[in-house]
């Protein structure tokens, strides 16, 4: 009978355990769906619509090349749309900018770690005092910064809307009257049934299209001069659709949210920055 080395057996067991842990670590976490309608037709339709709005990473052209150090400062929101203004602040947009600039392999100095220095710089820059702004950029962690990047929202407006629908009430009444004038009891009953069926049919459909525009600016951290700027727009469509027949109703609503639209605009802007200014 062959003898096995205990150390060899232990090493094999440890190797198998490490491989098992590695496979578990490599697997992306999955989560259940506690919704009582999970798997139903309404759930499938809602999820199919939501899938279109999920975050989609962008493959940046020069991501393999490390870019210069940047700071993303809150930009300006020049929209007068109340819905947008209630939902967004300049800090929200700057947060999206930091995420995408990091994905494009730009070293991003975290704003929250820079303390009051960054606030002072922003104030000096916004007041048009480049000398004061340069003074702050020579301090602490800001010394390594080459570019200041900001993303501004210049436009949020609904440019088109359309609505159409069908209400079968009038046709249902006409069908009932035709049955009554048919001259027989059977015709009257059939007309009543047909009228009820047609009269119960109701459909409606609405669509609205928004245009949201974003500008980016790249500012030289040493001279505070503008290096480059760009502008991009995206359409956002939201819609509803409903149908009701004999008391059975079906409805859907959806579209890309404002959050997703802003993030996609940031992605388009960062893609251009990554392509042109590394």
Explain this structure.
With 278 residues, this protein is of the alpha+beta class. It has a single domain, classed as ABC-type transport auxiliary lipoprotein component (Rossmann fold), CATH 3.40.50.10610. It is 42% helix and 27% strand. The protein has 9 helices and 5 strands; from the N terminus they run ααβααααβααβββα. Helix 4 packs across helix 9 (258-276), helix 5 runs antiparallel to helix 6 and helix 7 runs antiparallel to helix 8. It is elongated, with a radius of gyration of 30 Å. 19% of the residues are buried. Mean pLDDT is 73; it is low at 175-181.
Structural class of the secondary structure composition? Answer: alpha+beta
User: CATH homologous superfamily - what is it?
Assistant: ABC-type transport auxiliary lipoprotein component
Give unreliable regions as ranges. Answer: 175-181
Order of helices and strands: HHEHHHHEHHEEEH
Shape: elongated
In order across it, which strands form the biggest sheet? 1-2-3-4-5
Strand content: 25-35%
CATH architectural group: 3-Layer(aba) Sandwich
Q: How many domains in all?
A: 1
* Mean pLDDT score: 73
CATH class: Alpha Beta
Task: State the distance separating the first and last CA atoms.
Answer: 67 Å
Number of alpha- plus pi-helical segments:
9
Rounded radius of gyration (Å) = 30 Å
CATH topology: Rossmann fold
The count of strands amounts to 5
Share of helix, binned: 40-55%
Major sheet, described briefly?
A: 5 strands, mixed
């Amino acid at each position: 009978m062959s003898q096995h080395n205990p150390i060899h057996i232990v090493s094999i067991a440890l190797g198998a355990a490490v491989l098992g842990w590695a496979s578990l670590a490599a697997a992306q976490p999955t989560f259940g769906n506690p919704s009582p309608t999970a798997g139903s037709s309404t759930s499938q339709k809602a999820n199919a619509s939501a899938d279109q709005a999920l975050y989609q990473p962008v493959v940046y052209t020069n991501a393999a090349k490390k870019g210069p150090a940047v700071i993303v400062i809150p930009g300006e929101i020049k929209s007068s749309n109340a819905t947008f203004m209630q939902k967004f602040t300049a800090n929200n947009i700057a947060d999206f900018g930091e995420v995408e600039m990091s994905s494009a392999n730009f070293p991003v100095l975290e704003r929250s770690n820079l303390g009051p220095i960054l606030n002072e710089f922003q104030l000096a820059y916004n007041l048009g005092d480049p000398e004061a702004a340069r003074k702050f950029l020579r301090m602490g962690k800001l010394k390594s910064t080459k570019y200041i990047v900001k993303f501004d929202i210049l436009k949020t407006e609904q440019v088109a809307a359309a609505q159409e629908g069908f209400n079968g009430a009038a046709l249902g009444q006409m069908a009932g009257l035709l049955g009554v004038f048919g001259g027989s009891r059977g015709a009257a009953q059939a007309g009543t049934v047909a009228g009820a069926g047609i009269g119960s049919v109701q459909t409606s459909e609405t669509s609205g299209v928004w245009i949201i525009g974003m500008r980016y600016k790249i500012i030289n951290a040493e001279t505070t001069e503008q290096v480059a700027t760009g502008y991009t727009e995206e359409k956002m469509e939201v819609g509803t659709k409903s149908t009701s027949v004999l008391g059975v109703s079906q409805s859907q609503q959806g579209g890309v949210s404002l959050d997703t639209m802003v993030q996609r605009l940031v992605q388009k802007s960062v893609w251009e920055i990554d392509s042109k200014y590394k």
